[in-house]
Structures are given as structure tokens and as C-alpha cells.
């Protein structure tokens, strides 16, 4: 079972290594997009996207319906 957190991507830290900054509960953390973003893809397209995060890796892109459900459950600011 995966215990994932969610956060919104807010910046690029290291494009070559696929490392981005995410906002989680008012804090910023660095995570890897290596599982979701292939080499060569422009990371700028990920800015503002909400992702599920497990042990420092983005493991799923959350769709608008998922984000709305999290907001309804008061799990998304």
C-alpha cells in the first residue's frame, strides 16, 4: 500500500535530473518527476500541476476531479 501526499508543482530546481519544487501544506519540498516526465520533456508544462507524492517521487498526476474531491474532504487548500 502506498501512503501518498499531494502537492502543487511550483518551480523547477534541476531540469536535467527532473527535480521540481512542490508546495505541500504551506511548505516547499523538492521531489523527482522522473517517474512521470520523460527525458527531454519541458518541465515548464508541469508548473501548477497537482501530483501525488511518495518517498520523494511524483507517482501520479491528479486530475481536476481528484483535486475537487480533495478540496471537498478539506485535504487540499
TrEMBL record:
It comes from uncultured Pleomorphomonas sp. Belongs to the HupF/HypC family. This is Hydrogenase assembly chaperone hypC/hupF. It comes from the Bacteria.
